[in-house]
Predict the 3D structure of the following.
Amino acid sequence: MPNLGCELVRNTANSIIVPDIRFGDSSLINAIPVIIALEQGYTGMINDQYIGKGFVLAPETISGNMRNDGLDNSIVKKLPYSDPNNKEVESVQFDLRVSEWERYKDMQTHMIADAVGLSASSLSSHLNGGAIKTATEVSSEQDRTANTVENKRALATPAINSILNTVCEYYGVRGKVGIRFSKAGLTNLQNLTSQTVQKYNAGLTSLKDAVSDLNPDANKAQVDQKVSDILEDKKQKDDNFLSEIGALDRMVPEI
């Protein structure tokens, strides 16, 4: 057995926190202060909900009766030196600051995304700025997330492949195996299709390369099959067109 089925995946070559330990740093190291701030903000929000629990100020003459109705925790008896003419029950409700905490959370999420190399909308779909974005802006955001994902996959791939081959060897499976990640969700298909078609029409890429670009998850055999299907379909359409032209020629009377 080449290993024990355990592999070390390092995000960085060395650690900036403990330089002598060659385990690397976490992928989230740049976001740790922001994550702490987000946690503190969540604690503050929960504290506001606790403090903001509504209660009632009731004059002494009726507060006792209200407590008998099971509202002990929500009733506060007015001080005796309060205005004797004020016999009304008053509702007290502090502001929960829901909208402020929501903006705070969104701000911290934006900062986390910037720190780890993602677009904010990848972490939370509503963080798109609220405005209609151009195709270039959308593509730029998606490219940022895709680049980060590809980078992390490249770091993990050797270790995953090593473990897979160890498992295969343990079970007596011959040959080498490897993981191939899907690119689904990481590509703007509309932009990719437009660019690929333009390149193909301009003669800058072959049909096989165009098909491969449009089907990033397809292997070589699948790409070859798609190319074969396209060529066969094109040949069939050309034959049908020629047949229709021939039929029209036969229908035209000779002069």
Observations:
- The two ends are 87 Å apart (CA to CA).
- The chain has a mean pLDDT of 79.
- The beta strands are 55-58, 75-77, 90-92.
